[in-house]
Design goal:
With 422 residues, the chain is of the alpha+beta class. Helix content is 52%, strand content 14%. It is built from 15 helices and twelve strands.
């Protein structure tokens, strides 16, 4: 082979190497273990501190990686075409060469990513220097590209770019499920992460205590009556209403009653010591609501429906339970679980439980668009007020009414069945 041919082959190899470097750099930064990185930083390793700076200001580094990928791909294409032009009839060889070159490019990138994932810290530490040097050399090209990126984001109404380090929610969900035991991610930690994701999708009506279960007192009641209500219910915050629960006018905190206990003024009206209620629409998302309650330093919110009536009540505890699971105190010792599994294909379920929770616990696919609770689905399918023994069949399960209280559903039995056999 001539010297020119060797030069073209060398250029092809360099292009593949650049593409591999870019793929490895991106994969290592994405998969790097933050805990081990923190340990390297604490040990005083300068390159580890430089990687931390990358995560704080990732735009330049990831733009450099993208530019490297572009150079590598372009180098492979140009080198293959130049090599093919050396033969008498280059047309077919160009096509064949491009296919072979792109396959080689793909294989090299996959191999580089695989190595980088296994040795993410080592790879990131090794490649950060070359990346930085490349960024300095090609700064005249990167600066206008960065400017164009920011201009495009401004035109789209985004002041800050979404960096490649900001992983989409669905990708994070997949990562949480795919990590192995060596990551020390326990099952309860997985559940908490999923709970955080769900908060941005769940409306207040799915986590509230419905109006029918609210423990409330009339605004005309005395302090003594509210004390009795606190003692009998175990709740430390009692809503008070004018005429009907649709007109909540305040929230009485148990600690505000202590002065009356000390002074013996239990027959005083309770309304003057009630705090103003905080109202929220039943469509407000749980994550936004938790932030609001924290900012306003409020522990209880009254949920209102589209007509302005009281739909229910929720507390900060209810919202936190969406992340950490059920919080049981001394008053919850005898409280039944909302889903009691009887066997692999049968469970007893509280009619008020959100359909999302039923689907997740029993691996069902019940419609959550039109109904919030399993009881609401049963009411709709029956088309009448349910009574004990009523049954509905929907989406591969049989739902039977176990108990009711007046017109209200209490307990339901869910049995997985085969739609074909009935």
């Amino acid at each position: 082979m001539s010297a020119a041919t060797w030069a073209k082959l060398l250029a092809l190899g360099i292009a593949l190497g650049i593409a591999a470097l870019a793929a490895a750099a991106q994969a290592s930064l994405f998969h790097i273990n933050r805990n081990r990185l923190r340990g390297l930083v604490e040990s005083g390793l300068p390159r580890a501190q430089a990687i931390v700076k990358v995560f704080n200001e990732p735009g330049w580094v990831f733009l450099t990686i993208q530019l490297l990928e572009a150079f590598g791909t372009a180098g492979v294409v140009v080198s293959v075409i130049l090599l093919a032009l050396e033969v008498a009839d280059p047309g077919p060889w160009i096509v064949l060469g491009l296919v072979a070159g792109l396959v080689a490019l793909l294989v090299v990138q996959i191999a580089a990513r695989a190595v980088a994932v296994v040795r993410s810290e080592t790879t990131a530490l090794a490649l950060l220097g070359p990346l930085s040097a490349f960024g300095v050399v090609f700064a005249p090209l990167l600066l206008p590209l960065r400017g164009l990126e920011r201009l495009g984001l401004r035109l789209l109404g985004r002041d800050q770019p979404t960096e490649p380090s900001a992983v989409a929610e669905e990708e994070l969900r997949i990562l949480v499920e795919s990590v192995d035991d060596s990551t020390a991610l326990e099952e309860d930690e997985r559940e908490m992460i999923h709970g955080i994701f769900e908060m941005s999708h769940r409306p207040a009506r799915e986590v509230m205590v419905p109006r029918i279960d609210m423990v409330a007192e009339s605004a005309d009641a005395s302090v003594r009556q509210v004390v009795d209500r606190v003692v009998s219910s175990g709740y430390s915050r009692i809503p008070i209403y004018q005429d009907t629960p649709d007109s909540v006018v305040g929230i009485v905190y148990a600690k505000d009653i202590l002065r009356h206990l000390r002074e013996g003024t239990l027959d005083d009206p309770v309304a003057p010591i009630a705090r103003p209620p905080y109202f929220v629409p039943d469509t407000k998302k749980v994550d936004e609501l938790l932030e609001d309650l924290q900012q306003k330093r409020v522990h209880v919110a009254i949920v209102v429906d589209e007509y302005g009536g009281t739909a229910g009540l929720l507390t900060i505890e209810d919202l936190i339970e969406e992340i950490v699971g059920e919080i049981r105190d001394e008053y919850d010792v005898n409280e039944e679980q909302p889903i009691q599994t009887l066997s692999d294909h049968e469970a007893v379920v509280d009619a008020r439980i959100p359909l999302r929770d039923v689907n997740e616990a029993l691996h069902l696919h019940l419609n959550t668009d039109e109904f919030d609770t399993l009881g609401g689905l049963v009411y709709h399918e029956l088309g009448k007020v349910p009574v004990d023994g009523d049954e509905i069949r929907v989406n591969g399960c049989l739902v039977s009414v176990i108990s009711t209280q007046g017109r209200r559903l209490k307990k339901l039995r869910v049995t997985l069945v085969d739609d074909e056999t009935g």
